[in-house]
Amino acid sequence: MLRHKLQCFDCQREPAASEADFRCTICGGLLEVKFDLKGKKKPAWDHRQLSVWKYREILPIENEESIVSLAEGGTGLHRCRRLGRELGLQKLYVKNEGENPTGSFKDRGMTVAISKAKELGKKKVLCASTGNTAASLAAYSARAGMECIVLVPKGKVAGGKMLQVTMHGAKIIQVKGDFDQAFVTALELTKRRRELYLMNSLNPYRLEGQKTLAFEISDQLDSKTPDTVILPVGNGGNISAAWKGFTEFQQLSIAKTRPRMIGIQAEKASPIAKAVKRRENKIRPVHNPQTIATAIRIGSPVNWPKVLKAIKESKGTAETVTDSEILEAQRQLATLEGIFVEPASAASIAGLKKLKTNRRVDPSETIVCVTTGHGLKDPSILNRLPKSQTGYSLETSDQTSIDNIERAL
Ligand code: F0G
User: Fold this and answer.
1) What is the rounded end-to-end Cα distance, in angstroms, of the chain?
2) In the prediction, which pLDDT does 19 show?
3) How far apart are CA 325 and CA 320, in angstroms?
4) Does domain 77-103+206-384 have CATH number 3.30.460.80?
5) I want to staple 263 with a disulfide (CB 3.0 to 4.6 A). Which of 155, 233, 278, 284 is the partner?
6) 104 phi and psi, to 5 degrees?
7) How confident is the model at residue 17 (pLDDT cuts 50, 70, 90)?
């Protein structure tokens, strides 16, 4: 493993980090892991299989025996010719993170953060979540033999995710209100009880795992950097982790350039996209955020400084999409490409469609849309589909009924 340190993202100093909330003890800024990559060559990892741990030299785990894994990463980068044709784009790819062990990109971060927790001797982990982080943490803590507590917004978590956390035996606390209230509660609990280890994306070790998304995209394109990478944004951990990953590959001279990063938010939960559009360097939190994409129903995203910097440095942008645009994109991706993703993930496709319509992407660009979670996470979408798509019902198998069905084929 290469040398690294924890550093404040804002003041660049190396404070004695407060582990309770992972904030800089000097200025209160977000923390990040800094690897010393100056003058370093690419580690000899080419022979290894594509996965998070392929890149272990630049992951912050001291001892390989600490690694807790369920075989995460190595997800498909799918060339989408049929959808591309429909949208008028020549080189469209989908990096499908729903192929991870618990069905979302969170597993990339969780394998690293839980391994770190083990290395630090932690026994009890906790997070606030809209569902996927909770499902992932529940699985990895079960694998590590740790106690797990998840705080979720009451009645607002997709059914598949609730089933996962329940099945893995996490202690579930349903908080009245949104994710934002659940997060404040989680922070308060970690301050009161020192034995609790926070696993939200404030934990910089998680983002280290998530940066491997960028490494894999680069490797899957034979080190040719895509022009544009589009991701759904909630708390902003993933887009900033991906940007860090692309930056580190450039520092190691593996890639020559870095892509333009574009973040997509749901219209009524879009503090980051609004800040970008208004050209402000701070967000204004949204109260009572609303969207069918419950995974990104967040009004006060904690990683906003990292997101705004990634978008600015990459000359990227942010866009908003409506719930019906999200549902339409979800169906298009499923019917044209066979890739079934949850609504939050489809936001990246819906955003791309809007950007193409507004001529903010070029037809010949290489574009990667990241789809972050599997479609089976949220079966409630079935109720939102038009009747014509949910099948015919055959009451009896008499000849007339079969004749009617045949006519409809
Ligand atoms: N897509 C999905 C499917 C998600 O679950 C999330 C976040 C995001 C996108 C946004 O990623 O927060 O890194 O910008 N889900 C979190 C959770 C909040 O608790 O599962 P982000």
Assistant:
1) 59
2) 67
3) 10
4) no
5) 233
6) -150, 165
7) low
